[in-house]
Write a structure and sequence with these properties.
alpha/beta; Glutaredoxin; 6 helices
Length: about 180
């Protein structure tokens, strides 16, 4: 009985800590959420920082990471250094990142891009926020969420954390 109470206390504390840091509990409990690997990625057309509508499916890439995030999400922002590392290493080999913000405030979104140093990514915004059609299309219930897509439009990996993206790209795009 004592072990059960201790376990429940640890789980409760973890949930409270995650909530206080804007980290979705679902990202730890439900890692398989979202469209299935080997399925075709939904089309995405959204405005960039200049207001131009961008169709990321028409961009030239070997591999594209579609990353759903928001400036107010600490967990989302903590992933950016890992994405920057991968982008810097593999962009010359055909790797690109489409960073899809769910912000409602354009100024906060653009400020986060500058602060995080992610302006080289496709920076797109979906003003529908957490009610986004794209979140529904990708079956995303939490952010950050990401999907690695190959040049045929097939999802080959999802919800890559920390150095998982870098390690995978090392095998997909060797020297």
């Amino acid at each position: 009985m004592k072990k059960l109470i201790l376990l429940l206390c640890i789980i409760s504390l973890s949930l409270m800590t995650a909530g206080a840091q804007n980290i979705s509990v679902y990202s730890f409990i439900l890692p398989d959420e979202g469209v299935a690997i080997n399925s075709t990625a939904p089309d995405i057309i959204l405005p960039d920082v200049n207001g131009n509508r961008i169709d990321i499916n028409k961009s030239d890439y070997k591999y594209l990471l579609v990353n759903f995030w928001a400036s107010w999400s600490r967990a989302s922002r903590k992933t950016n250094p890992y994405f920057i590392k991968s982008f810097n290493q593999f962009q010359s080999k055909g790797f690109k990142i489409a960073s899809i913000s769910l912000d409602s405030d354009t100024n906060l979104w653009q400020q986060a891009i500058k602060e995080d140093g992610t302006s080289a990514f496709f920076q797109l915004i979906d003003y529908e926020g957490m009610k986004s059609t794209y979140l529904k299309d990708f079956e995303v219930d939490f952010i950050p969420a990401n999907f690695l897509i190959d040049n045929s439009g097939k999802i080959i990996a999802k919800n890559l954390r920390k150095d998982e993206l870098y390690k995978l790209l090392t095998t997909l795009l060797p020297n």
